Amino acid sequence: MGEKSDISGSLGLYYMGVSAFCRRYLLLNLTVRQTPTMVRAIPKETRAQVGELVLSGIEQVANMYVIPKRLVLAMLYLQPDLVSKREAF
User: Going residue by residue through the chain (89 aa), what tens digit of pLDDT does each one get?
Assistant: First the structure.
């Protein structure tokens, strides 16, 4: 996939990163409609957006990766501050 997108095969969703137009360039093109930096979720079948997550404080989305839930949980399990919470997983 492109650097700003990835597909979840198990969910059938295409995740697309959308970067805001850099503020420093807005004065150069006053016709640009400002869109916040976000991730959009789009089903492969319908191609109609079903959700978005605005990433406040982030200027650009450089890469997008879908990570399996079991890998995320394993990574969280290794964090020192979660050692006492391992039973929750």
Answer: 345 899 998 889 999 999 887 777 777 777 777 788 999 999 989 989 999 999 998 888 988 898 888 888 888 888 666 555 555 54
| Structural domain boundaries enclosing 53 | 5-88
Q: Using CA of residue 47, residue 2, residue 8, residue 34, what is the dihedral sign?
A: negative
Q: How many CA atoms lie within 13 A of 9 on its CB side?
A: 2
Cα→Cα distances 11→8, 46, 65, 67, 71, Å: 5, 13, 14, 12, 16
Query: How many separate domains does the chain show?
Result: 1
pTM of the model: 0.67
